[in-house]
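Task: fold both queries, return tokens.
Query 1:
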Amino acid sequence: MTIRFDGRVAIVTGAGTGLGRSHALALAARGASVVVNDLGGSLNGQGQSSSAADTVANEIKAMGGKAVANYDSVADAVGAEKIVASAVDAFGRLDILVNNAGILRDKTLAKMDPADYEAVTRVHLFGSAFCTRAALPVMQKNNYGRIVMTTSNAGLFGNFGQSNYGAAKAAVIGLMNVVRIETAKYGILVNTIAPMAATRMTENVMPAEMLPLFKPEFVSAAVAYLASEQCNVSGHTISASAGYVARVQIMSSPGVFFDTSRDLTPEMVADQWANITDMSKPQGFDSAGAEMEYIAKQTMARLKKSA
């Protein structure tokens, strides 16, 4: 199997540096026409410049690919619509959206300015929602689309001093979980990457000897697969870094079913806590409805058995 993107059009947000640049180059190298979006600001979201997006777009053109630069912000709905319009105006369609743009403003929650919480949330969560919303009508018209969200291990597992970043990144998982259900009938698949790579976001926190192991290209290989026709899954979260690729899933223990004919007390919950939290046989659910159906069926079966 050879994965190619000939005839496909992709948007990569935050593609002027780091992971976004790597994703854009990887897609272009395999034939995609790419909209290289980057506001050109600092790591904390301050300032604006066209140079970052221009540089990557020119790199793609120099290797024989097709690309246009875009400098709009993902953090507002109008900017997101302009990003999508750039793809349609330049290439006539849109097949792939990689929501990668991000900023950092790290502090403990007790010391964090509310403006820093809002700014990070607007870029990571609102930016992913705004760009996806703008892209959907174009993808729905063609009955095809691949959307790759970006979460973080800080959101999945926690990280000191990143309550704004971690909360926004965890929320992206919730966004994916809903959008993939809403778009399934249109042939649009939505998945999420959880990357760790040596970029300007991590260069000051990773030990120097580890940086060569965490090349962005290792992450981009997984992103390219999720963006491809060959990918046939939706709603998956994939952790990728340093040659490691794995699925991360929200799981549930089998749980304990209490007798619904009597009141449930905190003491009863405490008494069964070890069984309630036993993850030796975890299970996942495809949707909130699937979990509800499981609980209802198990409860009804118990009621019939005790009748």
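Query 1 returned. Query 2:
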Amino acid sequence: MKINSNGHLHQLVYFPGIFPVNCYLIEENESLTLIDAGLPTSYKGIQQAEAQLGKPLTRIVLTHVHSDHVGSLDKLVELYPGIEVYVSRRDARLMNGDMSLDAHEAQTPIKGGVPKHLKTRPTQLLDEGDTVGSLQVIEVPGHTPGSIALLDTRNRFVIAGDAFQTRGGIAVAGDLRFIFPFPALATWSKADALQSAQKLLQLQPALLAIGHGDMIQQPAQQMQRAIQQAASRWNIVLSLL
């Protein structure tokens, strides 16, 4: 595991040279919030990082419910009795094995590794604008119907899950990068992903942190380029949000 830190944010990277999977620890005054639970063995590095930071881990927030983002969730809940688990109201359905689509949603199958044997269920359901400590919830459907990003209101850092990737080159979810194609192959709706990417760009983040790849400081120009490239590939006219 590799740790990259920037202020209150600590990126935990697993298999950085092969299949990079990122979790994030966010420091609050007296505690830590974990964003995503990585792979089945990620809990070991999370515990080590918690010890180094010297604050208790009290919350887990999931950006979406794919296997590489919830791999250590059951183990962490076992290790930290009483820990709070947050997930979007929409993606909570995936935790229950409900792969159905609502009438207003893109009628394409939900993709990616949705775990079938996850024991943990959320203690809190999240909607647009909710807050978890210093983090504000931003709904970014596309990779999954209920994907969320988290905006740190103290510094405008955005932790975006798989709404973007930077491994293999920055890309909107669903826009294939042959060096690292997995986020694209696991994306449910390209049109929704593109609209969500535009929504994140409008936040003018000071830093973009994602599930797969390096963090980017002052990312607006690169985000804009990725959005335009995806729109061109998919023949979608960009809309003003």
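Both queries returned. Flag for query 2: The first strand starts at residue 2 and ends at 6.
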